[in-house]
Amino acid sequence: MPPATRTLHERMLKICHYRQRGASMGKKAKWAIYKKEHFQNLVGNVDMLVRGLVELFLATHPSQSVLCDDEAEEFRDVEPLDLLKDIAKAHHAPLADLLA
User: Fold this and answer.
1) Rounded CA gap, 94 and 100, in Å?
2) Residue 99: is it exposed, middle or buried by C-beta count within 10 angstroms (0-12/13-18/19+)?
3) 1-29 per-residue burial string, b: 16 or more CB within 10 A, e: under 16
4) pLDDT tens digit at each of 100 positions of the chain
5) Which residues belong to any copy of the Prion-inhibition and propagation HeLo domain (predicted)?
């Protein structure tokens, strides 16, 4: 991971840990189960923001393609490959293309 990206990652991780202080795994699971719509909104927002970051950093697409190819090779002999393909179609088009 490049130093600038690593610094950003470390800062985001620090923020996440700070915000989650005192929240046990049980408390997080309870929130996810009983506040399902909030959890789904959270996941949707994270997905949208990550897609925005991917589009923002278009220069990384060639190296991302190489990584996708390597990752796709790891899954070629996995039995539930159809499930992975379906998930990739919805959330990661480059990986979906390589798994097809």
Assistant:
1) 10
2) buried
3) eeeeeeeeeeeeeeeeeeeeeeeeeeeee
4) 677 677 777 877 888 888 788 788 888 888 778 888 888 888 899 999 988 887 777 666 677 777 777 777 766 666 666 777 787 788 877 777 777 7
5) 4-84
Question: Which positions ≥6 away from 71 have C-beta within 8 Å?
Answer: 95
Q: Is 22 helix (H, G, I), strand (E, B) or coil?
A: coil
Helix (H, G, I), strand (E, B) or coil at 79: coil
Where is 87: in which H helix or E strand?
helix 81-91
Q: For residue 23, give the 3-state DSSP assignment.
A: coil
Query: Which residue matches tokens 């991917």?
Result: 54
The pTM for the full model equals 0.35
Alpha helices, DSSP H only, in 20-60? 25-34, 36-56
User: What phi and psi values does residue 76 have, to the nearest 5 degrees?
Assistant: -60, -30
